[in-house]
Amino acid sequence: MDEHRREVEPPRCRGQVGVEGNPLHVALIMDGNGRWANERGLPRTEGHRAGEVALMDTIAGAIEAGVRYLSVYAFSTENWRRSPTEVRFLMGYSKDVLRRRRDELNRWGVRVRWSGRSPRLWSSVIKELRAAEELTADNDVLDFIMCVNYGGRAELADAAAAIAREARQGRLDPAKVTEKTLARRLYLPDVPDVDLVIRTSGEQRMSNFLPWQAAYAELLFVSDPWPTYGRDKLRRDLEAFGGRQRRFGGAVDALASCETAAGAAREG
Ligand code: IPE
Ligand code: IPE
Ligand code: MG
Asked: What is the pLDDT of residues 187-201, one digit of tens each?
């Protein structure tokens, strides 16, 4: 059996969702497949193949850690700029991975969901995404969101277009447009904001991934190429997230809390 098709150890346990310090929603930019393969004298496509086991192992790790939503960037609206051969490979491979892994994901209690635009996306890929969604619709251990033909600006433009349409039809008052109005018209409006973005391969940019949802996310750029990622590295990265202090625009008065602590110590 080819290495990339190998069985992945199922989640060893199921982490508790909502435990303090635990991100509810992790977004992954799975980057570095091409470079990883080229460094080994292999064609870029072999890097994508090697990413399959990395992905399954990472999903298992997310379940173990009690992550409830995992969004992964599989194909961006900008990735059409790649060579026809690579685009064809990525389309075909997304389809194959979905078909090959959906029963396993279903056994793990994973709900597969698609986020992205349909124009241009291969209809056979949409068909597999829909089939996986249908099969796993009732699962509630982890929402695994596959962003395929996804672009953040496209998503916001689509939401703006929906708002304009509804306003013209008189179903929405333009004076009452708020952040919520827009948030409700995103591709998956029920999914909470991203807490942590992890990008592999050392690049430090967002590349049009979830700009609205990740507005207040913690960002982690790790040097590991995607094919070498998995549950152990995810655990390491979740630990780093645990050490972050999130403020959401608020203020933490370190001085005041020091004084309080000092005062308490004096009084005690
Ligand atoms: C990420 O790896 C996978 C996709 C974008 C589909 P890349 O293919 O971008 O690999 P690098 O960044 O060129 O090494
Ligand atoms: C982002 O990676 C898209 C995916 C991982 C699917 P890219 O490799 O396409 O991003 P850039 O071009 O380096 O910004
Ligand atoms: Mg890349």
From this structure: 999 999 999 999 999
Task: Determine contact, residues 224/33, Cβ cutoff 8 Å.
Answer: no
CA torsion sign for 93, 98, 103, 105 is positive
Q: Is any atom of ligand 2 closer than 6 Å to the C-beta of 201?
A: no
Distance (Å) of CA 158 to CA 71, 82, 150, 151: 19, 24, 12, 10
The rounded Å distance from CA 99 to ligand 1 centre is 22
Q: What DSSP state is assigned to residue 65?
A: H
Instruction: Find all residues with CB under 8 Å of 166, minimum gap 6, and list them.
Output: 172
- Per-residue pLDDT, averaged over 170-183, amounts to 98
Residue 232: alpha-carbon gap to chain centroid: 17
Distance of CA 37 to the CA centre of its chain: 23
pTM (whole model) above 0.85: yes
